[in-house]
Specification:
The chain has 3 helices and no strands. With about 80 residues, the chain is mainly α. Helix 1 runs antiparallel to helix 2. The chain is elongated, with a radius of gyration of 14 Å.
Length: about 80
């Protein structure tokens, strides 16, 4: 965590990250159709981003955690649209 980032901003980012992670997990649980090989690969990538996001958060790297959660969320949103 950077020293110049206010604690309130860090807390807000962690909350947003958690919301993105939860929304992404809900998207994945909501997939009730057969997936193509490409879509299965997307799911694996999404899960990888989520795991990396959680690890970064646990290590105190809130910006990286947020970025990874956002990538996972954007991919899951795209997958659900298909």
């Amino acid at each position: 965590m950077a020293a110049d980032v206010p604690a309130a901003a860090t807390m807000q980012q962690r909350q947003t990250t958690a919301q993105l992670q939860a929304s992404t997990e809900a998207d994945l649980r909501g997939l009730n159709r057969a997936l193509s090989d490409d879509e299965k690969a997307m799911v694996q990538q999404i899960r990888s981003y989520l795991q990396q996001s959680r690890t970064a958060d646990a290590e105190g790297d809130t910006q990286r955690a947020y970025n990874l959660a956002l990538k996972a969320h954007l991919l899951s949103t795209e997958l659900v649209k298909r």
